[in-house]
């Protein structure tokens, strides 16, 4: 069996460091926020090249706080994409704002900047691009439009720790950037976790208060806040893992290059290509299939796990029926939902496993 990702292999590789960090927190008594979380914030801000980082309990909370700090609320509209995890859209709904979709472009499956201006209204307040699979969206074009219309750009960087666009780190290109530390993400906690990064001092101050009950000081609640705090144990674990993130990213990029060179000329699948001005961190290695059902069958027959990201675009989810969309509204996202398939990808993946995956995928080219 080749798994889609292997969290146990990662733990085994760094077990002594993780165990030490956890035991130290247990002894410290700092179970919520505390010194380890504060150090993680500084180190993650440095990693993202921003002035501030605010640790929270999930990536979804990070998105919610970033929107609130940008002043988004009921009656506002936030532009995002339908080809994403549901949390992007849910976070917009939490604020009372309305998600407004624009389609993705076919090469990177990230927000198509040429479609943004057509959906801007007097109620539009922000644009939330998603750095899908670990590759950043076309940020210069998105920022230029945002600037022209006075909109905030909030990056959903939940899949893009350490990704770059023209040499700039994910999270540092918009007014703020949101990360998830869900276990399967490129930097993953042993539980839930998230982070917002920003270089805007005002936004940072607001988010710091909002994550901890809107307190300016203990029991002085200056705004209606939330309990979005990060656990001390997760902070300590994430500090250990952050030290390994660059090496893990290099390994992911090598695996992706190996897959892509082996798929060159394939009639079964076409890999998504890395853009010349970007550093893709391959949270997900996705291919476009000629006949996805056939590829799924041969992978299953060979005991190879895979994922679909995402089989139903957000505008066609039952949960968002109130937005009134129907099939055909966002054809590029809808085609991706039918054609894209995600292959095993994690730093510990072996060359031998990659070869097995490729041969299973290619089998379909002759069978079908
Ligand atoms: C994982 C993810 C989130 C949500 O993160 P959680 O930590 O699970 O709340 C949001 N957006 C995208 C694109 C994601 O992949």
From TrEMBL:
**Gene3D superfamilies given for it?**
Aspartate Aminotransferase, domain 1, Type I PLP-dependent aspartate aminotransferase-like (Major domain)
Keywords of the record, alphabetical order, are: Aminotransferase, Pyridoxal phosphate, Transferase
SUPFAM superfamilies registered for this protein in UniProt: PLP-dependent transferases
InterPro entries hit by this protein: DegT/StrS_aminotransferase, PyrdxlP-dep_Trfase, PyrdxlP-dep_Trfase_major, PyrdxlP-dep_Trfase_small
Q: Name one GO molecular function term.
A: transaminase activity
Family membership noted in the UniProt record: Belongs to the DegT/DnrJ/EryC1 family.
Protein name per Swiss-Prot or TrEMBL = DegT/DnrJ/EryC1/StrS family aminotransferase
Query: What is the species of this protein?
Result: Mycoplana ramosa
